[in-house]
Protein backbone atom coordinates (compact mmCIF):
# COMPACT_ATOMS: atom_id res chain seq x y z
CA UNK A 1 0.00 0.00 0.00
CA UNK A 2 2.90 2.36 0.66
CA UNK A 3 3.98 1.99 -2.99
CA UNK A 4 0.54 3.09 -4.21
CA UNK A 5 0.54 6.08 -1.85
CA UNK A 6 4.03 7.04 -3.02
CA UNK A 7 2.93 6.75 -6.67
CA UNK A 8 -0.17 8.81 -5.92
CA UNK A 9 2.02 11.56 -4.49
CA UNK A 10 4.94 11.40 -6.93
CA UNK A 11 3.96 9.85 -10.28
CA UNK A 12 3.63 13.08 -12.26
CA UNK A 13 6.62 14.73 -10.57
CA UNK A 14 8.95 11.79 -11.16
CA UNK A 15 7.79 11.19 -14.72
CA UNK A 16 7.97 14.92 -15.44
CA UNK A 17 11.53 15.10 -14.18
CA UNK A 18 12.54 12.19 -16.41
CA UNK A 19 10.78 13.69 -19.45
CA UNK A 20 12.30 17.16 -18.95
CA UNK A 21 15.74 15.62 -18.46
CA UNK A 22 15.32 13.74 -21.73
CA UNK A 23 14.22 16.92 -23.52
CA UNK A 24 17.26 18.80 -22.22
CA UNK A 25 19.52 15.93 -23.24
CA UNK A 26 18.02 15.77 -26.75
CA UNK A 27 18.37 19.51 -27.26
CA UNK A 28 21.91 19.50 -25.83
CA UNK A 29 22.88 16.75 -28.27
CA UNK A 30 21.37 18.78 -31.11
CA UNK A 31 23.18 22.01 -30.15
CA UNK A 32 26.56 20.30 -29.67
CA UNK A 33 26.14 18.38 -32.89
CA UNK A 34 25.24 21.46 -34.92
CA UNK A 35 27.89 23.80 -33.58
CA UNK A 36 30.81 21.46 -33.03
CA UNK A 37 30.35 18.92 -35.79
CA UNK A 38 28.26 20.95 -38.26
CA UNK A 39 25.83 18.04 -38.37
CA UNK A 40 22.18 18.01 -37.40
CA UNK A 41 20.94 14.99 -35.47
CA UNK A 42 17.56 14.37 -37.06
CA UNK A 43 15.97 12.40 -34.24
CA UNK A 44 16.69 14.99 -31.52
CA UNK A 45 14.06 17.50 -32.61
CA UNK A 46 11.39 14.86 -33.18
CA UNK A 47 12.07 13.25 -29.80
CA UNK A 48 12.09 16.60 -27.99
CA UNK A 49 8.78 17.56 -29.59
CA UNK A 50 7.08 14.29 -28.60
CA UNK A 51 8.47 14.52 -25.07
CA UNK A 52 7.33 18.14 -24.77
CA UNK A 53 3.76 17.17 -25.68
CA UNK A 54 3.84 14.36 -23.11
CA UNK A 55 5.26 16.77 -20.52
CA UNK A 56 2.44 19.23 -21.19
CA UNK A 57 -0.21 16.62 -20.44
CA UNK A 58 1.68 15.46 -17.34
CA UNK A 59 1.75 19.05 -16.13
CA UNK A 60 -2.00 19.29 -16.61
CA UNK A 61 -2.52 16.19 -14.47
CA UNK A 62 -0.26 17.60 -11.76
CA UNK A 63 -2.08 20.95 -11.90
CA UNK A 64 -5.37 19.13 -11.29
CA UNK A 65 -3.87 17.31 -8.31
CA UNK A 66 -2.61 20.57 -6.77
CA UNK A 67 -5.59 22.71 -7.79
CA UNK A 68 -3.29 24.96 -9.76
CA UNK A 69 -5.07 25.24 -13.08
CA UNK A 70 -5.62 28.75 -14.35
CA UNK A 71 -8.94 29.99 -13.03
CA UNK A 72 -10.95 33.16 -13.01
CA UNK A 73 -12.20 33.33 -9.45
CA UNK A 74 -13.77 36.76 -9.28
CA UNK A 75 -17.24 35.26 -8.72
CA UNK A 76 -16.15 32.20 -6.72
CA UNK A 77 -14.22 34.35 -4.23
CA UNK A 78 -17.47 36.16 -3.36
CA UNK A 79 -19.11 32.88 -2.26
CA UNK A 80 -18.92 31.44 1.23
CA UNK A 81 -16.50 28.57 1.85
CA UNK A 82 -19.13 25.86 1.41
CA UNK A 83 -20.35 27.22 -1.92
CA UNK A 84 -16.74 27.57 -3.09
CA UNK A 85 -16.27 23.84 -2.50
CA UNK A 86 -19.50 23.03 -4.35
CA UNK A 87 -18.48 25.24 -7.28
CA UNK A 88 -15.13 23.41 -7.32
CA UNK A 89 -16.98 20.11 -7.59
CA UNK A 90 -19.12 21.49 -10.44
CA UNK A 91 -16.02 22.70 -12.29
CA UNK A 92 -14.41 19.28 -11.79
CA UNK A 93 -17.50 17.56 -13.20
CA UNK A 94 -17.43 19.79 -16.29
CA UNK A 95 -13.68 19.31 -16.67
CA UNK A 96 -14.14 15.53 -16.22
CA UNK A 97 -16.76 15.50 -18.99
CA UNK A 98 -14.46 17.43 -21.36
CA UNK A 99 -11.47 15.16 -20.65
CA UNK A 100 -13.70 12.09 -21.04
CA UNK A 101 -14.91 13.30 -24.45
CA UNK A 102 -11.33 13.89 -25.62
CA UNK A 103 -10.18 10.53 -24.23
CA UNK A 104 -13.08 8.74 -25.91
CA UNK A 105 -12.22 10.52 -29.16
CA UNK A 106 -8.59 9.40 -28.89
CA UNK A 107 -9.53 5.72 -28.72
CA UNK A 108 -10.44 5.29 -32.44
CA UNK A 109 -7.45 7.42 -33.44
CA UNK A 110 -5.08 5.15 -31.51
CA UNK A 111 -6.79 2.14 -33.09
CA UNK A 112 -6.40 3.54 -36.61
CA UNK A 113 -2.76 4.45 -36.03
CA UNK A 114 -2.11 0.88 -34.89
CA UNK A 115 -4.18 -0.71 -37.66
CA UNK A 116 -2.41 1.21 -40.43
CA UNK A 117 1.00 0.91 -38.77
CA UNK A 118 1.64 4.65 -38.79
CA UNK A 119 5.13 5.63 -37.63
CA UNK A 120 6.94 8.87 -36.90
CA UNK A 121 8.94 10.13 -39.89
CA UNK A 122 12.45 10.08 -38.44
CA UNK A 123 12.57 7.78 -35.43
CA UNK A 124 10.09 5.26 -36.88
CA UNK A 125 8.28 4.98 -33.53
CA UNK A 126 4.72 3.65 -33.89
CA UNK A 127 2.45 6.66 -33.51
CA UNK A 128 -0.11 4.70 -31.54
CA UNK A 129 2.43 4.47 -28.69
CA UNK A 130 2.72 8.26 -28.46
CA UNK A 131 -1.05 8.76 -28.64
CA UNK A 132 -1.51 5.86 -26.21
CA UNK A 133 0.75 7.57 -23.68
CA UNK A 134 -1.31 10.75 -24.05
CA UNK A 135 -4.49 8.72 -23.59
CA UNK A 136 -3.04 7.12 -20.45
CA UNK A 137 -2.26 10.57 -19.06
CA UNK A 138 -5.82 11.67 -19.88
CA UNK A 139 -7.10 8.72 -17.82
CA UNK A 140 -4.76 9.83 -15.04
CA UNK A 141 -6.33 13.30 -15.30
CA UNK A 142 -9.77 11.71 -14.88
CA UNK A 143 -8.53 9.92 -11.76
CA UNK A 144 -7.07 13.16 -10.38
CA UNK A 145 -10.35 14.99 -11.02
CA UNK A 146 -12.29 12.27 -9.20
CA UNK A 147 -9.83 12.37 -6.28
CA UNK A 148 -10.10 16.15 -6.04
CA UNK A 149 -13.90 16.03 -6.19
CA UNK A 150 -13.99 13.55 -3.30
CA UNK A 151 -11.64 15.79 -1.32
CA UNK A 152 -13.74 18.87 -2.10
CA UNK A 153 -16.88 17.04 -0.97
CA UNK A 154 -15.22 16.03 2.30
CA UNK A 155 -14.11 19.64 2.84
CA UNK A 156 -17.65 20.84 2.09
CA UNK A 157 -19.12 18.32 4.56
CA UNK A 158 -16.65 19.41 7.25
CA UNK A 159 -17.59 23.04 6.70
CA UNK A 160 -21.29 22.20 7.02
CA UNK A 161 -20.58 20.27 10.24
CA UNK A 162 -18.66 23.23 11.64
CA UNK A 163 -15.26 21.52 11.55
CA UNK A 164 -12.61 23.95 10.30
CA UNK A 165 -10.77 22.55 7.29
CA UNK A 166 -7.13 21.60 7.88
CA UNK A 167 -4.61 24.19 6.81
CA UNK A 168 -2.90 23.37 3.53
CA UNK A 169 0.84 23.52 3.95
CA UNK A 170 2.87 24.89 1.11
CA UNK A 171 6.03 23.07 0.10
CA UNK A 172 8.94 24.08 -2.07
CA UNK A 173 7.27 22.58 -5.12
CA UNK A 174 3.91 24.30 -4.57
CA UNK A 175 3.07 27.78 -5.73
CA UNK A 176 2.75 30.53 -3.17
CA UNK A 177 -0.88 31.11 -4.16
CA UNK A 178 -3.71 29.59 -2.19
CA UNK A 179 -5.45 26.39 -3.29
CA UNK A 180 -8.14 28.25 -5.21
CA UNK A 181 -5.72 30.26 -7.40
CA UNK A 182 -5.91 33.91 -8.34
CA UNK A 183 -8.26 35.87 -10.59
The N- to C-terminal Cα distance equals: 38 Å
Characterize the largest beta sheet: strand count, sense, and whether it forms a barrel: none
Q: What is the N-to-C order of secondary-structure elements (H for helix, E for strand)?
A: HHHH
Please report which band the strand proportion falls in: under 5%, 5-15%, 15-25%, 25-35%, 35-45% or over 45%: under 5%
Radius of gyration, in Å, reads: 20 Å
Oligomer: single chain
Structural classification: mainly alpha
Q: Level of helix content? A: over 70%
Q: Tell me, what's the shape?
A: elongated
**What is the count of DSSP helices, taking H or I runs of 4+ residues?**
4
Low-confidence stretches: 170-183
Number of strands: 0
- Mean of residue pLDDT? 90
Counting structural domains, the number is: 1
Describe the structure.
The protein is mostly helical and about 180 residues long. The protein has one domain (about 1-160). Helix content is about 70%, strand content about 0%. The chain has four helices and no strands. The two termini are about 40 Å apart.
Write the layout of secondary structure elements.
Elements: H1 2-37, H2 42-66, H3 81-115, H4 127-160
